[in-house]
Amino acid sequence: MATPTETRRRGRRGGKLNKARRKPPVDPPKVVDGGTTTTTVDDVPDHLLQDILLCLGSSACLVRAAYACKRWRRVVTAAGFLDAFRSLHGATHHVAGHYHTVDDAYDRQAAPGAFPDGGRSFVFVPSDELADTDRRRFSSLDFLPDCESGYSWELADSRGGLLLLTKMKQRTGDGSPARRHCFTFPDIVVCEPLTRCHQGILCPPDLSGYQCLGVFLLDGDGDGGRIGMSNFKVICALYDRYLLNYILPLSETLACTFTSDSGGGGWRLPHSTAAGGDVTLEHVRLDATSFVGRANGRVYWEIEGDEDGDMLVLDETTAGFSLVTFPENVRESYDKRTFRIIAGGDGVAMRVVRVINNDLKVFAQLDGDGEWVLEKRVWLPAAARGLPGYDEGYFQEQNGEAIVVAASAAYVLLTPPVEDTWLFSVELETMAVERWHERNKYAGVAYPCELPWPRASQATDADQISGRRRC
Amino acid sequence: MATGSGAAAAAADAEEKESGSRMITLTSNEGKAFVVTEASARQSATIRSMVDDGGCVDKGFPLPNVDSKTLARVIQYCDEHGNKEAHTVDERAALAKFDKDFIAELDADKAFLYDVTMAANYLHIQGLFALTTQCIADTIKGKTPEEIRTAFGIEYDLTAQDEEEIKEEDTHA
């Protein structure tokens, strides 16, 4: 019964492809026909369609919906819709998926077969709502330039829809303890998987011999701070080794920032140490640093075996380094495998995740007076007992502490002290312990990658267009 | 008869208490009358404000934008939510089950689902509107643009320029 009316209406519209904008149906397109009526989604007014699309809760779905037809695209790209969507769902819902890496300290037994193309040390796990076509594009980074033999692109950071990769020596399969936190300034590539754009960034010649602590992506200064291929920054934390008076081996930190074209372009090298933003240490100490996290515009490294409990800190805004010490209750029985820094938010400047006597503890530093409080705790041996594959021997006291493999604002990935292939995670919101998530298959950091927003149909923004052409 | 403000308030209170059992007539655009309890009718913010403003309760409310079939279904929802208690866990669970069955049935008839959505919007029945819009949104989830067009019977109307832009994004290399 519904079909004849529908066909007629479609036929009418289909014949006028050049019509700039479809007029809203003048008459209610209801045909009273023995009490039945036919309504299509086209009869639903724009403001209701907007309410419906706001219910989607994931920008992955929204991007696809925006390409269904002109009208839907117009509704999604209309002024105010984006803000309404964001205020309803927050930023976390734009995630297309996560790139999971595997840490050096662990082998790949935990995820056999998960890394099909051999050289690559990460795998893309899409979020549930992501459409199949997008899954394929995020999964395949085959547009990246080739590396010379023995090298591969490794994931170093992600931000918005961009990934930052560094060219690293491929790991040898013999399980040699590669100290990944100690390497010379690498070549870098920044890419956007969805559009398959990439930009290679070469190390500045002056700094090629410097040791690298890490490279990180930052928002650019243009485009309202929205990160994109034409609007991003890379900050590189380095140190230089030298001998003071030919005897004392010292290292001095420095950070340099690369800005994409719209922000002026190129590397900005540090001016001098006059700003007081650098730290000089005996170089054995800097050689022994490990990245432990990033929060509140700062990057943190622990210094192994440091008696004073100092940590090295890089301020992302000023590119200056300093040393900080955490309070005793946070630092207690310190070990880098049981210490991670994660982002705060909502009145919390930052959080520290610790394992102390197999208690997983979350400490929060409050905004304002900077006071540290113990926010949450869960005793891992008891919490993990019910999980599939649990073994009574995993948490025996003589084996030591559970190990933090990775931590994000949402969850912590752990292994028992003696079995590094048995991964489990703790959801920080609820402190619930589980093994069923896909994330528990990969022993390493997971980098989220977001979907960009659909652009309005009449994209006339010169920056956007030139940015796209350049790729 | 209400001489003082206190007495007026008391009278209003009494009226309020009575209101649950008062009957209200809603008339569809086909002229069919539906008699419902006031508690049921108050699920609609539109009718609620008309009643509270001292509208013509006795004469009933004509609803020129809603047909009989749609109104009957909307009333089914309002009766369930207006006339039944939702204080205990069991009562709430029963209501949740009603919602689930209600929307599952609607989902099978998309044209009707849109009608009920528009009526819920017109009558400002918040719970029903949230239920139907979420149901439509769930149909969009996880689909490609092509699948969305098929599911919703949407005509492909993108211009050559739109297509080129989308294609560029799809095959960027």
UniProtKB/TrEMBL annotation, chain A:
Pfam families attached to this UniProt entry: Beta-prop_AT5G49610-like, F-box-like
Biased amino acid composition, Basic residues: 9-23
Compositionally biased spans, kind Low complexity: 29-39
CDD domains (UniProt xref): F-box_SF (cd09917)
F-box domain: residues covered: 38-88
Region (Disordered): 1-39
Listed PROSITE patterns: FBOX (PS50181)
Domain of life: Eukaryota
InterPro entries (alphabetical): AT5G49610-like_b-prop, F-box-like_dom_sf, F-box_dom
Protein's name in the database: F-box domain-containing protein
Automatic annotation (TrEMBL), chain B:
Keywords: Ubl conjugation pathway
Region spans: Disordered: 1-22
Highest taxon above the source species: Eukaryota
Pfam families reported for this sequence: Skp1, Skp1_POZ
Protein's name according to its UniProt entry: SKP1-like protein
UniProt key word Ribosomal protein: no
Domain named SKP1 component POZ: residues: 23-81
Record-annotated SKP1 component dimerisation domain positions: 126-171
Classification lineage: Eukaryota, Viridiplantae, Streptophyta, Embryophyta, Tracheophyta
Description of how the protein assembles with itself and partners: Part of a SCF (SKP1-cullin-F-box) protein ligase complex.
Biased composition (Low complexity): 1-12
Pathway: Protein modification; protein ubiquitination
PANTHER family: SKP1
SUPFAM superfamilies: POZ domain (SSF54695), Skp1 dimerisation domain-like (SSF81382)
An individual GO BP term: protein ubiquitination
Biological role stated in the UniProt entry: Involved in ubiquitination and subsequent proteasomal degradation of target proteins. Together with CUL1, RBX1 and a F-box protein, it forms a SCF E3 ubiquitin ligase complex. The functional specificity of this complex depends on the type of F-box protein. In the SCF complex, it serves as an adapter that links the F-box protein to CUL1.
Annotated family: Belongs to the SKP1 family.
